[in-house]
Specification:
The complex is a heterodimer of chains A (160) and B (437). Chain A is built from two helices and eleven strands. With 160 residues, chain A is mostly beta strands. Chain A has a domain of 106 residues: Immunoglobulin-like (Sandwich). In chain A, strands 1, 2, 3, 4, 5, 6, 7, 8, 9, 10 and 11 form an eleven-stranded mixed β-sheet that branches. Chain A is globular, with a radius of gyration of 18 Å. Classes of the chains: A mainly beta (160), B alpha+beta (437).
C-alpha cells in the first residue's frame, strides 16, 4: 500500500510537467540550429493559406530554405509579397538562404509559406503540422490557426 | 467543378462570369420574344414617346456611368500610388510610423523624422545583400518644389536613366523633376522648410544650378529638385559625409564619422528574397525600422477595400433606385399607350405578343441606358483621373475593368428581369377600359 501511495505521489507532478512541455513545444521547434517560433496562419475556407513563422539560425552555417509540405495541402512553397498594379500578389521563391546568426521573419506583407490545394477548411483555434524543407532536413512546425483577420501570432513578442 | 474554375485563365473566368451574369436576361429575352417579331412596333412606340424615352435612357446612363466611373477611379488611384512606390523596394528609417515615413519618402509629404546615424547607414550600405543604399535628405524647398538630397544612382533609377542634360558632378549642381519650373542652366537658392513657414534666406549663400531634367515619372518626384545629398548637408553647415581629405567626393561610400544623418535610406537588393531578409535584419527595437512601402500601401488598400465595398453598395443602391424609377416610368408609359395596346388586343393580337412588345420597349430603354452609361463611366473616370493627377502629381489612369463590366452585366440582367412586371400588368388591364381611355 505504501509503495502504491509513493508511486502515486511521484506520479502527481508528471501531468504538470507534461502540460508545460505541451505548452512550449508547439511554439518552438528546431533542427540543426534552425529554430522556428510561433507558426500561425489565418482561418480560411479557401483553397490556399499563408503560414507565417519566426525563424532564427543559431547554427554555425547557412541554412537553405527550399519549400514546405503539409498533409492538409497538395503543395507548399516559399513566397514573397509584391504589389502589382495595386494588387497584392505573392511570388514564388525557389529558395531562401538564412545565414548563421541571422533571423528571418515570415510575416504578412513579407515572406510566407503558401499552402495550396487545402483539403479542409481552417477554423480558428485549430492546429496542423507542416514541414519546412531545408538543406539540413525537414523542420516540423506546429501551425496554429488564428482569426481570419489576424495580423500576428497571439504570442508574438514572447521569446519562449 | 471548382478545380476546373481555378484552372481557367483570369480572362476566361472574367468572360465566363460576364456571360453567367447576363444569362438570366438572355434566357428571359429568348423566351419572351420566341416566335414573335415585336421590334417594328417597339421602334414605333419608342419614336412616338421619344422625349420620355430619351429622358429614361439619360437617367439610367448617368446613374450607371457615375457608379462605374467612381469604381474605376478607386482602382486607378490604387494602381497609381502603387506605381509611385515601385522604385522604393525597402525603406529603412528610425523606428516610428511606417505610414509617415512612406508618405515622406515616397510621396514627399513634409514630416519631422529622427535621423539614422553614420554607423547605422554604414551597416546598411556595407551589407553583403545590399546593392543600393540611397540616403534621402528632406527639409528644403524652392517654391512649391521640395528639394531632396540623394545619390546619383538613385536619381538615375528614379528617372529610368532618362535625363535631359546631364547628371550632377558637383555639390552645387542639381536635377529638376519633369514639372519643376526651372530650366537647365538656371540657378536657384533653396529655402529652409516648406510652404508658408519656409525661410527663404536661410541658405542665402547657396547657389545651385540645374544641369539636368528628369523624364516624367508620374509620381510626386516630378515636382522635386534632386541634388547630391552632400549639398543638403553643406548648406546646413554640416559635414558632407566625407573625410576632409575627400571633401570633394560626390556620392558613396560615405564616412560614418562625417555622416550627419539621414531620415530614410532607400535599400535595394539584387535578389527578391534578400529584400525580405534585409527587412527582418533591420527591424530592430528602438534602433531601426525597415518596411516595404508596397506592403504599407497594401494595408491602406485593405482599408480602402472596405470603402470600395461601401461605394459598390452605394452605387448598387443608386442604380436600384434608378431601376425602380424606370419600372415606375414603364408603368406610367404603359398608361400612355394603353389605348394602342387595347386596340392591338381587340384586333386579336396574342397576349404573349403584347407582353413581348411592352417588355422589349423596357428592355430597349435599359440596354441603351446601360450602354450609354458605360461610355459615361469611361468619360467620368477620365475626367476624375485628370483632376486627381493634377492635385496629387500621382499619375492616375482609370480604364474600365472587368469588375465594372460585371457590375453592368448584373444591373442589365436584374432590370431586364424586373421589367417583366410592367409587361405583366399591362396584360391584366381590361381591353374595353383601354379602348375608352
Amino acid at each position: 500500500m505504501r509503495t502504491l501511495l509513493l508511486a502515486f505521489a511521484l506520479a502527481l507532478p508528471l501531468p504538470a510537467l507534461a502540460e508545460t512541455h505541451d505548452h512550449d513545444a508547439p511554439h518552438l521547434t528546431e533542427i540543426a540550429g534552425l529554430r522556428a517560433l510561433h507558426a500561425w496562419t489565418r482561418a480560411s475556407s479557401g483553397r490556399e493559406a499563408l503560414v507565417f513563422v519566426e525563424l532564427e539560425n543559431t547554427g554555425g552555417g547557412s541554412v537553405l530554405l527550399t519549400g514546405a509540405e503539409s498533409g492538409i495541402a497538395s503543395d507548399g512553397a516559399l513566397v514573397g509579397f509584391v504589389l502589382k498594379d495595386g494588387q497584392p500578389a505573392w511570388e514564388t521563391l525557389a529558395s531562401v538562404p538564412l545565414a548563421a546568426g541571422r533571423a528571418l521573419h515570415l510575416e504578412p506583407g513579407a515572406l510566407a509559406i503558401r499552402l495550396s490545394g487545402l483539403s479542409r477548411a481552417l477554423t480558428e483555434g485549430d492546429h496542423f503540422e507542416l514541414h519546412l524543407e531545408t538543406d539540413h532536413g525537414a523542420l516540423a512546425l506546429h501551425v496554429e490557426v488564428a482569426a481570419a483577420d489576424a495580423r500576428q501570432h497571439s504570442h508574438a513578442g514572447h521569446s519562449h | 467543378m471548382s478545380d476546373l474554375w481555378y484552372s481557367l485563365p483570369a480572362l476566361a473566368q472574367d468572360i465566363a462570369l460576364t456571360f453567367a451574369l447576363l444569362l438570366p436576361a438572355l434566357l428571359v429575352g429568348a423566351l419572351v420574344l420566341r416566335g414573335f417579331a415585336p421590334w417594328p412596333l417597339t421602334r414605333a412606340i419608342l419614336w412616338r414617346f421619344r422625349g420620355a424615352s430619351v429622358m429614361f435612357v439619360l437617367l439610367i446612363a448617368i446613374s450607371v456611368g457615375m457608379g462605374i466611373g467612381l469604381l474605376a477611379q478607386e482602382r486607378g488611384l490604387r494602381r497609381g500610388t502603387a506605381q509611385a512606390a515601385d522604385k522604393f523596394d525597402l525603406v529603412v528609417s528610425a523606428p516610428g510610423s511606417e505610414l509617415s515615413v512612406m508618405l515622406a519618402a515616397v510621396f514627399l509629404q513634409p514630416t519631422d523624422m529622427p535621423l539614422l546615424d553614420g554607423a547605422t547607414y554604414d551597416e546598411i550600405a556595407s551589407h553583403e545583400n545590399v546593392s543600393v543604399a540611397a540616403p534621402l535628405a528632406f527639409g528644403d524647398s524652392y517654391g512649391d518644389a521640395p528639394v531632396i538630397g540623394t545619390t546619383a544612382e538613385f536619381a538615375r533609377d528614379l528617372a529610368d536613366d532618362r535625363i535631359e542634360g546631364r547628371m550632377w558632378q558637383a555639390s552645387d549642381e542639381a536635377l529638376a523633376g519633369a514639372l519643376v519650373p526651372l530650366g537647365v542652366g538656371e540657378s536657384f537658392t533653396p529655402a529652409h522648410g516648406h510652404g508658408d513657414a519656409a525661410e527663404g534666406d536661410a541658405h542665402g549663400d547657396a547657389h545651385l544650378q540645374i544641369v539636368g531634367r528628369m523624364a516624367p515619372t508620374g509620381t510626386p518626384w516630378d515636382r522635386a529638385i534632386l541634388l547630391p545629398v552632400e549639398a543638403v548637408w553643406e548648406v546646413h553647415g554640416l559635414a558632407n559625409g566625407h573625410a576632409p581629405e575627400r571633401a570633394g567626393q560626390i556620392g558613396p561610400p560615405f564616412d560614418p564619422d562625417y555622416f550627419p544623418g539621414t531620415p530614410a535610406v532607400v535599400v535595394r537588393a539584387e535578389a527578391l528574397w534578400a529584400n525580405y531578409a534585409l527587412r527582418s535584419e533591420f527591424t530592430r527595437d528602438r534602433e531601426t525600422m525597415a518596411f516595404f512601402p508596397g506592403a504599407v500601401l497594401a494595408g491602406l488598400y485593405a482599408v480602402l477595400g472596405d470603402i470600395r465595398q461601401v461605394m459598390s453598395l452605394m452605387a448598387l443602391v443608386t442604380q436600384g433606385l434608378v431601376a425602380a424609377s424606370v419600372l415606375l416610368g414603364l408603368f406610367i408609359l404603359s398608361r400612355l399607350f394603353r389605348r394602342q395596346i387595347a386596340l392591338l388586343r381587340a384586333l386579336g393580337a396574342p397576349a404573349r405578343f403584347v407582353f413581348a412588345v411592352v417588355w422589349s420597349f423596357g428592355a430597349a430603354l435599359l440596354v441603351a441606358g446601360a450602354g450609354l452609361g458605360l461610355l459615361t463611366g469611361v468619360a467620368a473616370a477620365s475626367v476624375l483621373s485628370r483632376v486627381v493627377t493634377a492635385r496629387t502629381d500621382i499619375l492616375v489612369t482609370a480604364p474600365i475593368g472587368w469588375s465594372e463590366i460585371h457590375f453592368l452585366a448584373g444591373f442589365v440582367s436584374l432590370t431586364l428581369l424586373l421589367s417583366l412586371l410592367p409587361a405583366a400588368v399591362v396584360l391584366r388591364q381590361q381591353v374595353v377600359d383601354g379602348l375608352r381611355a
